[in-house]
Design a protein that fits this description.
This protein has one domain (19-70). By secondary structure, it is α+β, with helices and mostly antiparallel strands. The chain is built from two helices and four strands. The model has no long low-confidence stretch (mean pLDDT 86). Helix content is 33%, strand content 21%. A four-stranded mixed β-sheet has the order 3-1-2-4. The structure holds zinc ion.
């Protein structure tokens, strides 16, 4: 029983990590990034924020970045 709980905890942590992406809040930005050092974020006119992949897609309507999702 203990090991099952541990596994669930571990799994949740992994998911939070892989399901979060970087986006720029600037009005001309339309992509999400898997790293904030991506060159697609260099021209960011707003703030760089770390959000869940779900929010990036559905709330901010972002597409995967051409540089970091190739
Ligand atoms: Zn990128």
């Amino acid at each position: 029983m203990k090991s099952i709980i541990l596994f669930l905890l571990l799994n949740t942590q992994l998911q939070t990590k892989t399901d979060s992406v970087w986006i720029c809040t600037g009005r001309y930005s339309h992509a999400y990034h898997n790293t904030n050092t991506c060159k697609g974020l260099r021209n960011c006119k707003g703030m760089e924020i770390y959000v869940s992949l779900y929010d990036a897609r559905n709330k901010y309507h972002r597409k995967p970045c051409n540089y970091c999702y190739n």
